[in-house]
Design goal:
Layout: E1 3-4, H1 6-10, H2 14-26, E2 38-42, E3 45-54, E4 57-65, E5 77-85, E6 91-96, H3 97-116, E7 123-128, H4 132-141, E8 147-153, H5 157-169, E9 174-176, E10 187-190, E11 209-212, H6 225-230, E12 232-235, H7 238-244, H8 246-253, E13 262-265, H9 266-270, E14 292-295, H10 300-318
Parallel strand pairs: 1-6, 7-8, 7-10, 8-9, 10-11, 11-14, 12-13, 12-14
Antiparallel strand pairs: 2-3, 3-4, 4-5, 5-6
Length: about 325
């Protein structure tokens, strides 16, 4: 059974990962039917078990979330992904689970951004976070939209400077900034471990898009109640969001919104079922009267879709 390491996973590329996710949704995969994540508290943090099956394949990710690893100079997210043949459940490959997560999470966000932002006009991006997901999101967003400017906001000045330098090295106009910069943003992306809101949601312009990916815990959030209340909210799955998305569950507990506040899902957008037009037909920001919020918690069907694409690409590469 082959082992597909971080380099092999990364060779797939974000654009191909985005298309893999879109493809399974267009083929009829229902994220609402995806098994829910299991979480087990352990001394070092948390172990997550994420199984999924679709079509010719099945798989399971075992991920570790170790908050103390940062002080040890180690990655916060660890793990492995076991890809199986669907009909026989015969193991096909073992993948680097952290690398898979680092690829699929930005790809999910990029797919949402492709459908929630107007094409053609370069976007002003405010990016919260300076870890691997921030780098991954910056690169992923460039595959679906042109970026006029990148403003990086983070707690660690050295980390902010490093990401700004990375962005500039790729040819982007970039600078350090803070929470107030969301007022002039077309796109705000949150990739942090924050447990409380990062910015004042009243500052976000009507028609701007906000993506929040940092947490799958019901009591942690990166966006505030003001933003959620005034936004059209999109999620990967209503069931998953109402179990795990603190960005939505905290405002609901406050009585500010109800379960019906969710406007639609990623599948609705990809398959053209959402209330907003998608792709090249998207309206301009000025035509939309409220912000768009995409809240991602990360789901097992996403890992499976991207793992299958990685496996297929690795097989093709081995034959050349």
């Amino acid at each position: 059974m082959p082992y597909l390491d971080a380099a092999a996973v990364g060779r797939l590329g974000t654009a191909a990962a985005v298309e893999a996710l879109a493809g399974v949704l267009r083929a009829g995969l229902d994220p609402e039917a995806c098994p829910q994540r299991s979480a087990v508290a352990v001394p070092g943090g948390e172990l997550l078990l994420m199984p999924a099956a679709s079509g010719a394949h099945a798989g399971v990710k075992i991920a570790g979330v170790a908050p103390g690893n940062a002080a040890r100079g180690l990655p916060r997210i660890t793990g492995s992904y076991l890809l199986l043949d669907g009909p026989t459940l015969r193991p096909l490959a073992l993948l680097d689970g952290a690398a898979l997560t680092a690829l699929r999470t930005p790809a999910v966000s990029a797919l949402a951004v492709r459908h929630l932002t107007p094409p053609g006009r370069p976007l002003r991006l405010v990016l919260f976070g300076t870890g691997p997901q921030a780098y991954g999101h910056l690169d992923a967003l460039r595959t679906v939209r042109s970026l006029a400017q990148v403003v990086v906001a983070g707690r660690n000045p050295a980390g902010v400077d490093a990401l700004v330098a990375h962005a500039r090295a790729t040819g982007l106009a970039a600078r350090a900034g803070g929470a107030a910069d969301v007022e002039g943003a077309d796109l705000v992306v949150c990739c942090t471990t924050a447990r409380a809101p990062l910015f004042d949601g009243r500052l976000v312009a009507p028609g701007a898009t906000v993506v929040a990916v940092g947490s799958h815990e019901p009591d942690a959030r990166e966006t505030d109640t003001a933003l959620v209340r005034r936004s059209a909210v999109y999620v990967e799955s209503r069931a998953a969001a109402l179990r795990e998305a603190g960005d939505l569950l905290v405002p609901e507990a406050e009585g500010a919104i109800g379960p019906g506040h969710i406007t639609g899902t990623l599948a609705d957008l990809v398959c053209g079922r959402g209330p907003l037009p998608s792709g090249a037909a998207a309206a301009s920001s000025a035509d939309r009267g409220c912000p768009q919020l995409f809240k991602s918690v990360g789901m097992a069907w996403e890992d499976l879709a991207v793992a299958v694409a990685v496996y297929a690409a690795a097989g093709a590469n081995s034959e050349t």
